Amino acid sequence: MQEHQMAQTAERKRDRVHLRLDARTKRKLEQAAAYEGTSVTGFVLANAVAAAERVIDAHEKVTLSATDWEAFYDALINPPESNERLKEAARRYRERVGG
Fold first, then answer.
1. 20 contact partners, CB below 8 Å, separation of at least 6
2. What is the pLDDT of residues 9-18, one digit of tens each?
3. What is the DSSP secondary-structure string of 62-89?
4. Is 19 helix (H, G, I), strand (E, B) or coil?
5. Percent of the chain scored above 70 by pLDDT?
6. Is there a smaller number of Cβ atoms within 10 Å at the N or the C end of the chain?
7. What is the mean pLDDT of residues 69-87?
8. Distance CA 84, CA 93 (A)
9. Looking at the predicted structure, is the pLDDT value of residue 59 above 90?
């Protein structure tokens, strides 16, 4: 398993991102990296990945209140009977996706 992890690390480190920034911003990043005891690259990468994860989560996850969760769960466990509109929508979907 360790070889697999090493291969993944080597793969990830082939790609590069180049940034253009002013001297003030660079000094700020250097100072923050020093406070964290890491390199500027490590600091920027860690914080960029954390920000990317927050943005992705905000767009891909849904948080429900307890009341909404109960309604959603109840609909999953006890689905309503299919009506004609639902059957027609399912038919159109199968035609579009080939299912």
1. none
2. 656 678 899 9
3. ----HHHHHHHHHHHHSPPPP-HHHHHH
4. coil
5. 87
6. N
7. 94
8. 14
9. yes
Q: Which residues of 4-20 are buried (b: 16+ CB within 10 A; e: fewer)?
A: eeeeeeeeeeeeeeeee
- By residue count, the chain amounts to 99
Give me the long-range contacts of 44-47 (CB less than 8 A, separation at least 24). 44/19
Q: Are 80 and 70 in contact (CB under 8 A)?
A: no
- C-alpha closest to that of 47 among 77, 19, 81: 19
Q: Tell me which residue has tokens 């109960």.
A: 70
Q: Decide: 30 and 41 in contact? Cβ < 8 Å.
A: no
**Whole-number Å distance between alpha carbons of 85 and 93:** 12
